[in-house]
Amino acid sequence: LYSESDFVEGYYRTERDKGSQYELFYKKADDMEYRHVSLFRPFGPLMKVKTETVDISQSMINIIVPLAERTEVFAQFMQNFRDVCINQDKRIHLTVVYFGQEGLSEVKSILESVAREADFHNYTLVSLNEEFNRGQGLDVGARAWEKGEVLMFFCDVDIYFTAEFLNSCRLNTEPGKKVFYPVVFSLYNPAIVYANQDGPPPVEQQLVHKKDSGFWRDFGFGM
């Protein structure tokens, strides 16, 4: 049995001529398996649709990042990647598709440094001597994977995510059936938001969902 404290996340939708559908996920604190409960509430009594156990312990994610220059942002991205993906999640492959030659050696150095210090070798660097094209980068990165079935996470270099978000990706996708389009929160320029202070606080303290610090980007599917 699961209680309210075991609730992880959920979502619902309402169809005007039928009723409301609920997708709920529960998990015990020390258990890697999730319980997925689907409910349907017609315009009448609540109906249980299904209850199933979801095991994501072996679900590998390939994070694909198209990149050109922006080496300082990439260094910051790799710091979060190391904290979340290497130290916590441990089921991640990183694919970086780099456009151009300027900054390429620095990106290689950052990747090699992380690989050496964290003993992490699940990464691929693809170099293209062309102008930056995000769509092409994602396509090339996806095709570079040759190790069987994998969940692909199309990611921009300035995205900050958590280990819990990676599990949400696993729970809300199905091979060949379902993709996950999360709505991201975009932060305003910290130099403007914190202009009255001595300087912007650390990145972790800026991650506050309020109207003064940013907005929900609900008009696009980019990450």
TrEMBL record:
InterPro entries: Chond_GalNAc, CS_glycosyltransferase, Nucleotide-diphossugar_trans
EC number: 2.4.1.-
Coiled coil: none
Domain of life per record: Eukaryota
Main EC class the enzyme belongs to: transferase
Keyword Transferase (UniProt): yes
Gene Ontology CC: Golgi cisterna membrane
Signal peptide: none
Transmembrane helix found in the keyword field: yes
Membrane topology: Single-pass type II membrane protein
Subcellular location: Golgi apparatus, Golgi stack membrane
Keywords: Golgi apparatus, Membrane, Signal-anchor, Transferase, Transmembrane, Transmembrane helix
UniProt GO MF annotations: glucuronosyl-N-acetylgalactosaminyl-proteoglycan 4-beta-N-acetylgalactosaminyltransferase activity
Family: Belongs to the chondroitin N-acetylgalactosaminyltransferase family.
PANTHER family reported in the protein's UniProt record: CHONDROITIN SULFATE N-ACETYLGALACTOSAMINYLTRANSFERASE 2, CHONDROITIN SYNTHASE
UniProt-recorded name of the protein: Hexosyltransferase
The species this protein was found in: Micrurus lemniscatus lemniscatus
UniProt lineage: Eukaryota, Metazoa, Chordata, Craniata, Vertebrata
